[in-house]
Amino acid sequence: MMIAALNFSPFPLYLAERAEPSRKRVPLVVVEEQRVVHANVPARRHGITAGMRLDGARMRVSHLEVVRYTEPDLEHAWGSLLRELNDYTPWVEANGRGRALARLDAQEGLELARHYDIPVGLADDCETAELASLSARPGCTREVSSLTTAAFIDRLPLRFLKGVGLSEANYTRLQWLGVATAGDLARWSAPQLRTYLGDEGNALLPFLQGPRRTELRPFQQPETVERSLTFTEPVLEPHELLTALERLSVELERALDGRVARRLTLTATTPGGKRRASRLAKRPLQQARQIRQQALFALHDSQAEGRPIERLTVELAAPTRVGQQESLWPQRERRHRALRAALERFPASQRRFVWRDPYAQAADLAWRWEGYVDENGAYAGADAVERGDALREQRPASARSAPSAGAEAPAVSAAAVPLFDPESLAPAAPGSQDGRDGARQSRGENDKRGEGEGLLFGGLH
Questions:
Q1: Other C-beta atoms within 10 Å of 90: how many?
Q2: Phi then psi for 96, rounded to 5 degrees?
Q3: Of 208, 237, 265, at which residue does a domain stop?
Q4: Is 144 found in the same domain as 99?
Q5: Residue 386: domain span
Q6: pLDDT tens, residue by residue, 128-183
Q7: Is residue 17 part of a domain?
Q8: Of 10, 398, 25, 71, whose CA–CA distance to 265 is shortest?
Q9: Do 286 and 411 reside in the same domain of the chain?
Q10: At what angle do helices 238-256 and 288-301 cross, to 10 degrees?
């Protein structure tokens, strides 16, 4: 058994060409901040190199294609690839995204090289195997035994060291000095390498002079929580997909059992293949409504909407149990939890007392009752409890249907406002019988108040 170094880098280009093999003959680039980071062989033949601006690359190749993958998609694809390699051998170790080490024999290494169409290097240590993979062709293996390691490094061209940490600037400086092979650089002493190359010298020392690692750690497969739903007939309608995602979200919440996860992956199986998308949530996913929301976003990103879906799979990666620090005021926490639970079921029921102007003479100007929901009716109870922000109360439908939409609602006496009846704040529609009765009653109350104030001031005179 030898150590095999499997080279999938650059990983975004490998994913694009693996998904559509016909794209191997099309110029492809990976772009970050409008600059080319990686280019495949057809693009390099047109003179496109790393560091070139995307506008300049498009001037060279009019039909240039840009590969775009999100970080959650790349992370999920790399994890899936490592799990596939774990089926061949339990000794699999990730050496950065796009590089993997495994303990295999020569026949298994050749089988994996042909299956994935990647270069594979075989050696007795990790560093030599990685150098061998960089010098091999896709779909082929290069085997370096322990007896031929020194000769292999002595003949290895210097450009292959750029795959293990040598920068383009230092590569040019070494060429000026006449260094052509890795063997020429290996004859330098360790202090010379560190002085001339800096941190890159420390990274290159294990490859040139050792010490070299000969042991691999067993693969630790990350825990995932996954639920799937297979339809008897292909599903096209959105309401059927919403029902299915609701069911999967409830099952995932039960499977989490108090744990939380941040990365969600949705896989939609269609007659034409699989559509997959991953989402990295800003807040930990624990409740069913949070999982359902991220699953809907992932379904939209997968571009599976409108296609006949035969199977839906939702996966939560690396669930963890979050520790909570007990507070010094447990009664306040219990009150907050009770308020959140009430707002989840009845968002418009809870109201709170808010001071407007404590020195105002009129009661309706001094204070008011305010709800915990915004004007669109969206639930925001948890944020409102923690921050204490005053959110706008929801306007009733009668106010939205009134002809004078820009006019303010008439003032209502504070004594006539019940505690938990938001409909009482709704202004009556113009011309209605209730509006005339309310106006008549309001004028009667004002007349009585005026008579009382007149008696009071008359007594003072």
A1: 12
A2: 90, 160
A3: 208
A4: yes
A5: 331-425
A6: 888 988 888 888 888 888 888 888 888 889 888 888 888 888 888 888 988 888 88
A7: yes
A8: 71
A9: no
A10: 130
